[in-house]
Amino acid sequence: MQLAQLLQGLDYTMVQGSDTCEVNDIIYDTRRIRPGCVFVCIVGTQRDSHDLAAQAVEQGAAALVIDHDIPLPPGAAVVRVPFTRLAMACMSAAYFHHPAKKMTLVGVTGTKGKTTTTHMIKAVLEKAGRRVGLVGTNGITIGERHIETANTTPESYELQKAFAEMVEAGCDTALMEVSSQGLKMERVGGLHFDVGVFTNISPDHIGPGEHADFNEYLHYKGQLFQRCTHGVVNADDEHLPALLEGHTCDLTTFGFADTADYHTSGYELLRTRDFLGASFHVSGAEELDVRVNMPGKFSVSNALCAVAVARVLGVEHSAIQGALETVTVKGRAEMVPVSSEFTILIDYAHNELSMESLLETLRAYNPKRLVCIFGCGGNRSKLRRYAMGECSARMADFTILTEDNNRFEKVEDIIADIKQGMRKGNPNAPFVEIPDRLDAIHYAIDHAQPGDLIALIGKGHETYRDRMGEKTPFLERELIEEYAREKNLH
Known about the structure:
Layout: H1 3-7, E1 13-16, E2 26-27, E3 38-40, H2 53-58, E4 63-66, E5 77-80, H3 84-95, E6 104-109, H4 114-127, E7 132-136, E8 139-142, E9 145-147, H5 156-168, E10 173-177, H6 180-184, E11 193-198, H7 214-222, E12 228-234, H8 240-243, E13 250-255, E14 262-263, E15 267-272, E16 275-284, E17 288-292, H9 296-312, H10 317-324, E18 334-335, E19 343-347, H11 352-363, E20 370-374, H12 382-395, E21 398-401, H13 411-425, E22 431-433, H14 437-446, E23 453-457, E24 464-467, E25 470-473, H15 476-487
Parallel strand pairs: 2-3, 3-4, 4-5, 6-10, 6-11, 7-10, 11-12, 12-13, 13-14, 19-23, 20-21, 20-23, 21-22
Antiparallel strand pairs: 1-5, 7-8, 8-9, 14-16, 15-16, 16-17, 18-19, 24-25
Helix pairs in contact: 3-5, 4-9, 4-10, 11-12, 12-13, 14-15
């Protein structure tokens, strides 16, 4: 492919060589250089790969894309653009023949609820007969194939490659979580979304290498609504007017406020052996009854969002109702139905805010005891350990302290830090220490009382545990089910 074909539509200047040169791939990581590629120099939080331009040419790169002056290495075409990240996104779309334009593209942004909401929308669309590819925190899903990713929103080249594979697999819809970093770093550059979705916003991702302050965070979240045809947004969020400033899309609202297009005045919590969720009635633009197979008020809000998105896309009520009643999300308040006597679920909560939200949600079901099993990651901030310890001591009836991914720290040292926080939250809070996480799970099941609600938190969908840098298989759902079979629970 000629370089000029990749650059079509971009504002660029040839600094050296010709744009008629042939290139065979787009690379932004020198570890993946192959002869004949175009190397895109990007400025990262840790390194500016413009400094590696000469090395890239030595390794065989036929062309370079830059956005600031560098010493020009001989033997390669050099293109200058205003911002290389945007250029890479547009070039990647061209390289893969603009796959996103061949599907309905739905993007979901927000501080909390992105993963759950995208899975709800996916379940509804698939119930309606659509073939859906998914990109998000849990990775990329294309049919039965799953690809792990480092970021919620992958780099633009990987994203476009995934879209191309979705098209090849017969997907008619691409559904993705769109992070503020993904918008800021132009990982979704050049894309136009058919539907943009906003769940909620609160201070997060603020600090070095992320966002300077909340206003910047808000600004980039709002960029999605200048890149979509139709916006589906949470009317309950106080920051919505600021987020939508300058929006260019049509809007549909959802929420608990009766001014929202899709709203509910209340909900009923439901708990059975294999169901922990809620039922509610949707009013406003339409009327329908919904049961959602996930617990608490946040799940009702996320389900309302899924209803609104589904109706914007023309999905029938029966598909919406059928999908939401059975939907599950790996590692997000995921119930593991192993006993009629007690309820156990796994969740990815690994900071104080998410832990508090989860325990508050579960407390509303009035369990006999709310049991919390958790640890904290090694080689991470001790403040998180204190805060989570304080939270569990304050909100749980019984706590089982164990390992998470201890990495290169001793689990006993991490638990000692958590206990400091527990003493602050409630010095009399009952707890037990069981350093091995599998032993802790077995202990919780062995000592469960009728009516207990057991929350196993911190790892969620993860498939491993990390001890002293060695990762070994550890999938909690399977381990719980295996032990339940051994104990012959029913």
